């Protein structure tokens, strides 16, 4: 095994741990906030829906890279200092939660209106109808697109490198630069090929799961 492989693998491995941790934090926060926001979008209150709609449209409409730059470079100007990991997690969560909210809203509204009317006829208020009648059915409809969104969010973590987070992509780029300066050979094909394989191994099972869920829940 070439001498450069061990140090590079160790360094890139540190970046991979950061990428996985960032993915888990962003996915968990996105699902939690997105489910709440998506449910609020189905409330009878026009004012509540309007406020949540503004949140969703802003963070869905902005490119993630712009959001990351804003959080990392603009917030310190107003006295809110954040490190690269927190900035990346917040930026990805804003984008992810807005998209999850739309998935949840669509799933809830796809449940036939008669289901809600039947719950109301049984004396259920809005909360019991959502908990016992609507959300169990909406969950089945939302699962395939949510899994697909998880895949997309995992892939988007690579954008965190633009603000200097030492994720798997940034670690790979730095390793290539060091090898170029020290030995004149980049080994870019091997290193970036390994990164490609890592993302493929992570995302392929989720993609297959999304397709299977979609077929099973039709």
Automatic annotation (TrEMBL):
Q: How does it sit in the membrane?
A: Multi-pass membrane protein
Bilayer-crossing residues are 20-46, 58-79, 186-209
Superkingdom assignment:
Bacteria
> GO terms for biological process?
amino acid transport
Q: What does the sequence similarity comment in the record state about its family?
A: Belongs to the binding-protein-dependent transport system permease family. HisMQ subfamily.
UniProt cross-references to Gene3D superfamilies, sorted A to Z: MetI-like
Subcellular location per UniProt equals:
Cell membrane
Q: What is the official name of this protein in its record?
A: ABC transmembrane type-1 domain-containing protein
Name any one GO molecular function.
transmembrane transporter activity
Q: Is Transmembrane one of the keywords?
A: yes
Entry keywords, A to Z: Amino-acid transport, Cell membrane, Membrane, Transmembrane, Transmembrane helix, Transport
State the InterPro entries in the record.
AA_ABC_transptr_permease_3TM, ArtM/GltK/GlnP/TcyL/YhdX-like, MetI-like, MetI-like_sf
Q: One GO term of the cellular component aspect?
A: ATP-binding cassette (ABC) transporter complex
Span of domain ABC transmembrane type-1: 16-210
Chief subcellular location equals membrane
CDD domains, from UniProt?
A: TM_PBP2 (cd06261)
């Amino acid at each position: 095994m070439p001498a450069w492989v061990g140090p590079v693998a160790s360094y890139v491995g540190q970046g991979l741990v950061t990428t996985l941790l960032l993915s888990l934090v962003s996915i968990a926060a996105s699902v939690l906030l997105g489910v709440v926001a998506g449910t609020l979008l189905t409330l009878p209150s026009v004012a509540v829906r309007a406020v949540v709609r503004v949140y969703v449209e802003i963070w869905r409409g902005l490119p993630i890279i712009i959001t990351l730059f804003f959080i990392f470079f603009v917030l310190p100007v107003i006295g809110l200092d954040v490190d690269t990991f927190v900035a990346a997690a917040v930026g990805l969560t804003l984008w992810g939660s807005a998209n999850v909210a739309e998935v949840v809203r669509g799933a809830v509204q796809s449940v036939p209106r008669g289901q809600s009317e039947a719950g109301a006829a049984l004396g259920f208020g809005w909360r019991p109808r959502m908990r016992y009648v609507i959300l169990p059915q909406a969950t089945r409809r939302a699962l395939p697109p949510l899994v697909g969104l998880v895949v997309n969010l995992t892939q988007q973590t690579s954008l965190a490198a633009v603000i200097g987070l030492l994720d798997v992509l940034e670690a790979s780029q730095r390793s290539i630069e060091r090898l170029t300066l020290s030995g004149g050979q980049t080994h870019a094909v091997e290193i970036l090929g390994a990164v490609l394989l890592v993302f493929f191994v992570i995302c392929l099972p989720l993609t297959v799961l999304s397709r299977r869920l979609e077929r099973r829940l039709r």
